[in-house]
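S.,

Sequence below, as promised.
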Amino acid sequence: LEEQETRFEEFLQSPSLQDLAEFWSRLFSPIDALGPATADYYGSDSLELGGSIRLGDQTVFLVSADPNRRYYWRSRSFDTYEGGTWRSAADTRLTDNVAPFDVQIEQTAAREIVQQEFTIALNATRILYTAPQPLQVNLTTRTDLAYTAPEGDPSRSMNISVIRPTRVLRRGETYTATSLMSVATADQLRAASNRYPEWVRQLYFYVPASITPRTRELAQQIVDEAGAVTAYDKAKAIEAYLRANITYSETIPTPPTNQDQIDWFLFDLQQGYCNYYASAMIMMLRSQGIPARMAAGFAQGTWDAAQNAYVVTERDAHTWVEVYFPGYGWVEFEPTAAQAPLNRDGDDIPPEQSVPPEQPSPTPTLTPTPEASSTPNASETPPGNDVSGALPPTPTPTITPTFTPTATATPVIVPTQPAPIQPDVSNPLEIILPALSLLVIGLIVLLILIAIGTYIWWWLEWRGMRGLSPVARAYARLERYLGMIGIRFAGHETTEERRRRMIQDVPQARRPISAITRMYTTERYGKQRSNPTIDHRKSEAAEQAWSDARSRLIKRWAKRFMFWQRDD
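The prediction came back faster than expected:
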């Protein structure tokens, strides 16, 4: 019984049933409840670098959290890049039907516990958002992840890709999340070891062959001109270069098919939005032997003192960079020029720069240096293969936090997927949904009627008919249909007596009734030998006579119950 209950619960929580429930709720929602259907931004397991984007100002969710921090609301992370597309490397789906869901985390230094409460503002969501890095969610969940070590290894932790609720969350519903946010200073990250864990080396050093030599050379020139030696300073140098030399723009052409998108973004287009900024920074970092990945979700939004919460809209949808530092874990970086800079205690903070206008920026002043064509730390080995020469992991540092970031206003930012309509354009669903609702209701009613009609037809035409000859089957159907219109026969009546009563009550079916009765009497009481040719002809004649009788009997039934006044 317990196993059956578990299976039934899994069925109720299955994605297909959740999809159906969401569609049904969406279908019969009032028009004023329309708008973007879900808050499932970056819900796919892949993210493609594409062309222009557009988003509206619809509120996606509210977040109640300490306002004295800089936040990102992460929905998922992407690990591998190939051919202009990011994908997740998660290989395990963990369903936890007991709340809360506790993340098995890597032990890292310089982190603080941060509580958040999310309130859904759109119609539905099937993705949970948390500040990085998630520690606990107070819901039953279905999580895509990869374990960092085999079972039984004390260093084993969960490398989370995405956390989903086991049921769709609706507008107005809330959930709470607990995260371990990094408060590491610049000096702490500069001092981090370069001995990376095996799971990091296998996955986050990979640079595909499509990344061009001039992209690698540009990364090398940036760090050389900045005099950067540590992984942190190299990351800050590349971050600063992208912010200063690439123009933020949402309206860009579709990438060419014969050129790597990152190369096109850096050298030809020299403008784009967050997905391109983050992708370029990650690939340049990996070419320098620095592990990095893409994080996706939302920037922090706008603080609303009246609601004591951050208001997060579609326009806050965003991707950013996470860099791995041994002992400190994943740390956020912000290469997108339209976002406020992300600085830490100990950074040499440059003067605040205004957001570049939406037109191509001047050609970058840095030029590739041929002699820096490769970097021994980078990996062109596909994910899952070891990186030769990598150093073994070291114990986690015990440095304590000395700095708490302050909250910073978040400029407008947008992603590539999905691409909802602009706010000043009428939502086409407002026009088509009423008609679509009527169409679907009509279709459902039609299907029900077809199902009922099919059952009645089977009950009348085939129930109990197995093994009967075509002639006997026609006679049995004749008596069954006559019973439907109120004509009953006594057991002592002969076949001929019954025929006369049938003709008397349904005179318009005289000929087919007589033909069926005559063939049935001959077959049942005659002494004829079986002949395939004759039997086949009898079968055809019986079917034809029954088809004629059935149409007339149905009209007789309709006359009785629907008061038709005219007989053929």
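The mean pLDDT is 79.

Coffee later?
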